[in-house]
Amino acid sequence: MKKNSVFYISLLITAVIVLVGLIVPGPFAQGMNVVKEFLVETFGWFYLIAMFVFVIFSLFIAFSRFGKIKLGPDDSVPEYSNRSWFAMLFGAGMGIGLVFWGVAEPLNHFVTFGGSEQAADLAMRKSFLHWGFHPWAAYSIIGMALAYFQFRKKTPGLISSIFLPILGEEGVRGPIGKLIDICAVFATVAGIATSLGQGTLQINSGLNYLFDIPTTRLVQIVIIVVLTVIYTWTAVSGIDKGIKLLSDINLLLAILILVGAFLIGPKIMTLNIFTNTLGGYFNNLVSESFSINPFGDNSWLGSWTIFYWSWWIAWGPFVGTFIARISKGRTIKEFVLGVIIAPSMVSFVWFSVFGSLGLNLDLGIIDKAKEVTETALFVVLAEYPLGMIFSIIAICLLCTFFITSANSGIFVLSMFSSEGDLNPGNDKKILWGVIQALLALVLLMTGGLDALQTCSIVAALPLTVIMLLCAVCLFKALMQERKSELPLQEEAEKVPK
Asked: Where, by residue number, does the polypeptide cross the bilayer (predicted)?
């Protein structure tokens, strides 16, 4: 037990939260809301600054002299093709969220900001902001640092390993290193539970809208149980079999519904939205990254931007570790371009297509779609040709994204709780699969979407500090490697040619 204290302590903390939520759901939900309000009011500025730092640092490292360094030995090559690599990182990193918010977020912002042309423009720009460079930069901080130490420096696959430059081996193996890994495990469980809860709500709402299946806790429990069996099985099958295969299927389904939605939607409007919003995104990137109201109400900021930033941060250890695991042999520059630039562009296209589907409709239908976030996609698709078919594809995509996110999470949690073992045992995979499902159920039972959002915000605060220190550690290690190589380069230059 002493040897694997991270596993037992993390398990105990999660179990206590699950039990408290089941026994006293009312007080649990109220307590979570109090904590959420405190964190948003007190540390909102900190989340904003940290996320922008992640963007700048990642791009700086990629395009600096360090960009040519490989995440592994100098002679290593990537283990997976670019297609499979992208499919796995995209499915793990954000997939289910795109389906959930692709229509719902632009419409929510559009109505909130007044329903005008300016409101539509701002709604799309905010959607781009929340799903653009920032989340992927948060993933890349941990992914890049962990892959560097794990494959180039031969350290265990643990977040604490990144802290070797400032803690040393004794510090990493001691209480501070254990605390870092425990925070990573808890944040990972909370972040994944948030997404699984959202996915369950939307799958249930979609089935209700299309087939009149009731929206009840019992149905949601059945959905989670069925999908838990599937995602646990694929996690037990391993990366090369279950996770890789399902990620490839996932990507094909996503491309199918994206292309189909573009073809049945307002094509010129979609292209105009993409072009205009992309320009607005880059033009306002800095100002909107730091936008907070120092003199008034920040409730919208807390419900959207701060929620997203904390959600991405909570997902940082999980997605970062999984991306690191599948990125051996790639250069730092290749890693950053693949993890930040490419997925962000896909997100921009996704929101342009599905945002235009919603914004092209009458205000009455928009108001109806906004009423229940989980059904927004299905309400909008019903207004277009082949809407029923695309809705069924969307539900299938939700299920596959649900599974790919969860099985990747199980794999990473099992690594964290197995001393960084790159091929953890199936017993831990099964255990973490059950725990994830239980926590998602507890959050749904104690407050639905609000409780899910609160859980991410609470889990992200300590992790933000850890991730900022990860950037410091990586930079320090890269500088040390650079200094050690300079004498060798100078000697080589002195040799007569």
From this structure: 7-24, 44-63, 84-104, 133-151, 179-198, 218-239, 251-274, 306-323, 335-353, 388-418, 430-451, 457-478
Compute the distance between CA of residue 71 and CA of residue 78 in angstroms, rounded to an integer: 9
Cα three-residue angle 179-464-8, rounded to 5 degrees: 25
Q: Sign of the CA dihedral 108, 109, 114, 117?
A: negative
Phi, psi at 362, each rounded to 5° = -70, 155
What angle do helix axes 387-416 and 305-325 make, rounded to 10 degrees? 60
φ, ψ for residue 331 (rounded to 5)? -75, 160
pLDDT tens sequence for the chain (497 residues) = 455 788 888 888 877 877 777 777 778 778 877 887 888 788 999 999 999 999 999 999 999 999 999 999 999 999 888 888 887 777 666 667 788 889 999 999 999 999 999 999 999 999 999 999 999 999 999 999 999 999 999 998 889 999 999 999 888 889 999 888 888 887 777 777 777 777 788 788 888 888 889 988 889 889 888 888 888 887 777 656 666 777 778 778 888 999 999 999 999 999 999 999 999 999 999 999 999 999 888 889 988 998 889 878 877 887 888 889 889 999 999 999 999 988 899 899 999 999 999 999 999 899 988 888 888 999 999 999 999 999 999 888 888 877 877 777 788 888 888 877 777 888 888 888 888 888 777 777 766 556 656 666 677 888 899 999 999 999 999 999 888 766 545 554 555 55
Instruction: Pull the structure tokens for residue 40.
Output: 């948003």
CB 161 within 8 A of CB 146: yes
User: Which is nearest to 463 in space by CA: 41, 180, 106?
Assistant: 180
Are the beta carbons of 156 and 173 closer than 8 angstroms? no
Angle at 200 between CA 387 and CA 36, to 5 degrees: 120
